[in-house]
Specification:
Radius of gyration: 22 Å
Number of helices: 14
Number of strands: 24
Bound molecules: ligand EPZ
Oligomer: single chain
Distance between the termini: 10 Å
Strand order of the largest sheet: 22-23-1-24
Length: 432
């Protein structure tokens, strides 16, 4: 298995192009199941999770053609164009061996049920960052009339005769996935669905914008109350995946960690205002330049922060590990509270191997800044945790080797290349 080798100490200077958002691309691809006409998605990132989802969608009968032939692309021209066509759904079962590998594939439940009147989708199973139940998804779909049973590890869902009917779904807790699953069903249900306390993450808005292009009627996009008028069918559409705010925030933290002057190109400041406020508190200069963001830290110390993760527009849980890595070298003590997932601190023990001083008490981590980190072998445990080890490695003295890097490949497109171009010493080592 590949390793990533990082030698710390280099300042980063240059321009980093931001890819399309993984967490927008996945539900957008799943939306192709809603129509027998083609859905064209531009700016799709080349990631392991995207590739896995194409296999799952093919299993349901979705055809995929990719433009721009990845192998022939220039050195930094990111983003493929996907043409997805689910003319006929040939299988309404999403099997365990696929869903267990990527939780987002559970979101096929809503569209399969809405279009075919029946679906059998495996429960996703365990996850490194928390228990991650799917009760909110299932309760939401029940409000649209679905009959749902659990049978041998599978969710077996059936719509009433005549199809799903609009309903009122009040989420007791904000869930990105449940909002997406119910939205993907409600657009083909009869009558109006109202969703309250819906997730406001930009990726949900991007999906809703695409569904509108496909002919759906949705009011309240970007707010926590969505009004959806169901349609009998949806049409072909062309949509471009929005920029990845988590990749943007991650590179911003890398620039903050190494010092220097980095411009993040083709991305949006407003998706991350809260995270940039936190970064400014650490002593970094952040400039919103329209379609790019400039991050500079010239020599000053890293200041500590106190923050907690929250649903959008709060500080994202998907950047918690990265900011923790940054403040391991702060000039004081930071407190970081994780409120979204109950076990999202797997990076703490690995950061400690580099010399970080972090204490955990239930959902909070107290991070006492240290003067130096020292490179060591470490292990990636999940996608965002693994990139926090890259950040720590870039700040550490000497060499850090990160194993289990397939976690990184799930969500960061051409990470080493993007960083190397700005002066980082980071290489992928393939054994043998
Ligand atoms: C999405 O996961 C993202 N995944 C996650 O990104 C992200 O961390 C998360 O939203 C929160 O922003 C994708 O977009 C593919 P949730 P999701 O449902 O939808 C609880 C990454 O690294 N909950 O918003 O699964 C749940 O346990 C990934 O890219 C229920 O209790 O997250 C959690 O505590 C990791 N019952 C909270 O809600 C349910 O039925 C929020 O989870 C559903 C969720």
């Amino acid at each position: 298995m590949d390793l990533i080798k990082v030698v710390g100490g280099n300042q980063l200077n240059g321009v980093i192009p931001i890819s399309g958002a993984k967490n927008a691309a996945l539900p957008l691809m799943i939306a192709s199941l809603l129509t027998d006409e083609g859905l064209t998605l531009k700016n799709v990132p080349n990631l392991a999770d995207v590739n896995m989802l194409t296999r799952i969608l093919r299993n349901h009968g979705c055809d995929l053609a990719v433009d721009g032939k990845r192998a022939g692309r220039g050195p930094m021209q990111l983003g493929d164009t996907f043409h997805l066509t689910a003319r006929e759904i040939v299988d309404t079962t999403a099997p365990y061996d696929m869903v267990s590998r990527m939780r987002a594939s559970f979101w096929v439940l809503g569209p399969l049920l809405a279009r075919m009147g029946t679906a059998r989708v495996s429960l996703p199973g365990g996850c490194a960052i928390g228990t991650r139940p799917v009760d909110l998804h299932l309760n939401g779909l029940k409000e649209l009339g679905a009959d749902i049973e659990i049978d041998a590890g599978y969710v077996v869902a059936n719509a009433p005769k005549g199809g799903l009917v609009g309903g009122r779904v009040v989420f007791p807790k904000v869930s990105v996935g449940a909002t997406i699953n119910v939205l993907l069903a409600a657009v083909l249900a009869k009558g109006e669905t109202v969703m309250e306390n819906a997730a406001r993450e930009p990726e949900v808005g991007d999906l809703a914008d695409c569904l509108v292009k496909m002919g759906a009627k949705i009011d309240g996009i970007g707010t926590s109350t969505l009004h959806i008028q169901g349609r009998d069918r949806l049409d072909a559409a062309i949509h471009s995946v929005l920029p990845d705010r988590i990749e943007t925030g991650t590179f911003a933290m890398i620039a903050a960690a190494t010092g220097g002057d980095v411009t993040l190109e083709g991305t949006r400041y407003d998706f991350l205002a809260n995270a940039f406020d936190a970064l400014r508190q650490t002593g970094v200069t952040v400039e919103d330049k329209g379609d790019s963001i400039r991050i500079t830290r010239n020599g000053g110390a890293i200041e500590p922060v106190s923050l907690e993760t929250q649903p959008f527009p709060g500080f994202p849980t998907d950047l918690q590990a990265q900011i923790m890595a940054l403040v391991t070298r702060a000039s004081g003590t930071s407190v970081i509270r994780e409120t979204i997932f109950e076990n999202r601190f797997m990076h703490v023990q690995e950061l400690a191997r580099l010399g970080a001083d972090i204490h955990l008490h239930s959902d909070s981590a107290t991070v006492k800044g240290v003067a130096t980190l020292t490179g060591a072998p470490v292990m990636a445990t999940d996608l965002r945790a693994s990139v926090s080890l890259v950040i720590a490695g870039l700040m550490a003295e000497g060499e850090t080797t990160i194993s289990r890097v397939y976690h990184l490949d799930r969500g960061f497109e051409r990470l080493e290349e993007k960083l190397t171009r700005c002066g980082a010493d980071i290489t992928r080592v393939s054994p043998g």
